[in-house]
Amino acid sequence: MDSASQDFQPRMFSIKLWPPSESTRLMLVERMTKNLSTESIFSRKYGLLGKEEAHENAKRIEQLCFTSADEHFKKEPDGDGSSAVQLYAKDTSKLMLEVLKRGPGTTAESEAPMAVTPLESGDTVLDISGGKRAFIEAEEAKELLSPLTKPGNSYKRICFSNRSFGVDAANVAGPILESVKNQLTEVDISDFVAGRPEDEALDVMRIFSKALEGSVLRYLNISDNALGEKGVRAFSELLKSQENLEELYVMNDGISEDAAKALSELIPSTLKLKVLHFHNNMTGDEGAVYVAEMVKESPNLENFRCSATRIGSDGGVALSEALGACTHLKKLDLRDNLFGVDAGIALSKTLPNLPDLVEIYLSDLNLENKGTIAVLNALKQSAPQLEVLELAGNEINAKAAPAVAECLTAMQSLKKLTLAENELKDEGAVIIAKSLEDGHADLKELDVSTNMFQRVGARCFARAVANKPGFVLLNINGNFISDEGIDEVKDILKAAKNSLDVLGSLDENDPEGEPDDEDDDDAENDDDEDELDSKLQNVQVEQDD
């Protein structure tokens, strides 16, 4: 062998799976759009999304998941991007399922209304959010924001949601906002960089942040901007100057652990905070610790929403303990997390400190009987004035029914009760229905769908609500009620004060008593392929176990 052959060293090639190309990202958006707008078991239950709405949701999901996976990629030790791709695909499936479960026509814009205080006389609100989502260029920005440039204007509240600002438009908006920042009290810049490349979106956020720095706001909405940690820090100057916030909305923003940490570090004071909404983020247990720190420093909090944020047992315990400082809390929404029994018990120990609760949403928390009973025993003592109680999807069965019934008996102001997607069966249904028969004159909605009960349970619930004035909806769908049982329910309602109009849809009732198994568990299969496209080729809705 000659020296040249001996000196030859084979070149080592490494395949980088991250980041995906722009064409791959667009392909994923189109595939998600098709999945979201195609008839399925979810659309039959929650409604079918239109193509346009599906496409908008697909774009938002992709951006959120890309931001989260990109942050992960920068920390992963192997450096080839394989774990980032897996996270990208997994998160995409998770968020698609959440969109399908929300159904058509529900967007984050409607979850945080701009006008939360009575309108004042004169032109005090500039709202350019109407119409279809659109890109804003410099000239249009100048025209749309011209009312803010008029001498002596009295605008105090602005809403730029649903309009996508590029850098040129932001450079026009910046000086205008800076000129009126001292009179502004409410700012909604949710969903104002949609469809922009990340670098441009971050520049836009920095321009707005610098322009609004030093404003004394009571309301700030920065939802739907796929922030991640970089986005939160792009708003640094604005956030650091806010010591009087009463309402803060950070929903659908890809708030990971690092982003939650940044948020808690940047806002100097939450002492006056009354409303804090973190809905639909990627916070997890680690991020929940930083959210809990903010909550602990918000003694005047009245409305807290931290639903669909992937918080498990440890984070749930931390959050539950922190809520003990919020003694003025009236509305608590923790739905769709992975709390489990331990976090449920921790929450039950906090509830006695929340005597003003009026609405509590605890669906899909995996509380099981033990956690549910602990929570209900606490609520029975601390919040008999409760008007809304949601406990759907917590694996509650007939063994917990006596505790549920005892709690409901104490809650005579209840207007809405949701116990859907549990396992009460006839035995539990009879006990709970009996507790609702007497009193509860204000009850308007009862949802006990998908609880495995049959004719007996259905009749009992019908009797329980038949004569309640103002009652509007009885949902017993998704159970195993015979045709004769349905006829009996209708007869009970017709013979009483309430008409058949209060009976909800029965399209998923199964008179044969066979459970409707959703067995197409099409979770993503990671087959360790070396190509990125193959890993994303079959992204589908990942169903709950």
UniProtKB/TrEMBL annotation:
<dbReference type="InterPro" id="IPR032675">
    <property type="entry name" value="LRR_dom_sf"/>
</dbReference>
<feature type="domain" description="WPP">
    <location>
        <begin position="14"/>
        <end position="108"/>
    </location>
</feature>
<dbReference type="Pfam" id="PF13943">
    <property type="entry name" value="WPP"/>
</dbReference>
<feature type="compositionally biased region" description="Polar residues">
    <location>
        <begin position="535"/>
        <end position="545"/>
    </location>
</feature>
<protein>
    <recommendedName>
        <fullName>WPP domain-containing protein</fullName>
    </recommendedName>
</protein>
<feature type="compositionally biased region" description="Acidic residues">
    <location>
        <begin position="507"/>
        <end position="532"/>
    </location>
</feature>
<keyword id="KW-0539">Nucleus</keyword>
<dbReference type="GO" id="GO:0005634">
    <property type="term" value="C:nucleus"/>
</dbReference>
<feature type="region of interest" description="Disordered">
    <location>
        <begin position="503"/>
        <end position="545"/>
    </location>
</feature>
<keyword id="KW-0963">Cytoplasm</keyword>
<dbReference type="GO" id="GO:0005737">
    <property type="term" value="C:cytoplasm"/>
</dbReference>
<dbReference type="Pfam" id="PF13516">
    <property type="entry name" value="LRR_6"/>
</dbReference>
<dbReference type="InterPro" id="IPR038214">
    <property type="entry name" value="WPP_sf"/>
</dbReference>
<dbReference type="InterPro" id="IPR025265">
    <property type="entry name" value="WPP_dom"/>
</dbReference>
<dbReference type="InterPro" id="IPR001611">
    <property type="entry name" value="Leu-rich_rpt"/>
</dbReference>
<dbReference type="InterPro" id="IPR045203">
    <property type="entry name" value="RanGAP1/2"/>
</dbReference>
